[in-house]
Amino acid sequence: MTADLKTFIRRAMARGERIDVGQFRLLNLNAVREQAGENWPSVKKKALVAGTQFLAKRLDEDDAVIPCEEGFLVLFASAPDNPADMLAALSEALMRFFLGSPDTADLSIETEASRVDASDITQLAATRVATAPDMDADARRSRTQPPMEPEARLPRSCPVTECEEDSVIAQYRPLWDAQKQLLAANACLAKVVIGGRALEGRRAIATRMSRVSQMDLDSCAIDAATAMLLALARKQKRMTLRVAIHASCWANDTHRATLLDTINGLPAPLRKSLLVRIDGLSDQPAKQAAALAELGKHGVGLMAEIPFGETELGAFAQSGVSLFSCASPPPMNANSEGLMDHDARALNQMVKAAAALKAATYLHDVRDLHVLKAAMASGVRFFSGQTVVADRAAPAPGQALSMIDLYRMHKAA
């Protein structure tokens, strides 16, 4: 338990020393508010309370955490050996904590270290004390500062609550690298808004829940991904984004030309950051490999979707595929967890077959941590799904995320 503000100030005044302060400023509050809709006051209050408790557990009992309008103030009773490093570690841990909840997954954090006189602590805290939970820093700044230039803000998908029925929007699904223990990339997915929820577009079409076309989905995802890569480049940042083209669109000359025009609109160096898959041909390896080889001429990365446990990958030997993906098998029943022994063995053989082609493996639609752990033991490197990090309106930044962090996130959820 950390000290309250009055106790901290009394002790600091008695010592008369300068105090090290860490400021944690929450960014993207407007986006979170739009997503939360009517629940925004509750979501913000929950984020401030949970964030305060999270930080307090990682500080000494004489330190203090103060929730503020823009985030949190951390007051250190004793100066840390390296304040900047300590704030960076706390910020990274807090980001992982917020990633664990769909309500706060879009939040980013900016930190600043400073040192103030003990007599200034009261004024510092007073200027930043949290106000009513229906206010946020982004809204206040927008009334007092000129609007940001269009290129200063990364593109985001429209909040589902503002979308019309059957709208197609892009969302992002983070990919976790088990080998490096970090979020390494994002899949850019086209989703359809049905009944106030964003559902995966391919499934919505397959189950006849929507009348949108495969081309509607592919155009949405590729337009969003290329726009995102360009926006990141303007900020001198890079990120790998995974997109998919449906086989029916690839077979259609007009649709294929339209999609390739969008891809070729990217500068050649940026195209390497686009990892492209052909959907609908997982049971036709030769045809899929030929399509990927043709696609590879445009300078993009290549990914092949194959059946779970597939080991006959010879058709892809000359196609330039660097990643083989498959879906996690559905559970045998409502209570089943993890992988059956024969599934784990099949996955291991698939990993070996991919490695022979100098390619990695990726398991998506991961349903629980037991599946994740078993697949890791079988050698799979990349993972995505609700059990990793939830889909979001903007891509997750590349950052460290350990298996222990994933367990903690699920425990806290």
UniProtKB/TrEMBL annotation:
Organism (species): Maricaulis maris
UniProt lineage: Bacteria, Pseudomonadati, Pseudomonadota, Alphaproteobacteria, Maricaulales
Segments of this protein annotated with the region Disordered: 132-157
Highest taxon in the source lineage: Bacteria
Name listed for the protein in its UniProt record: EAL domain-containing protein
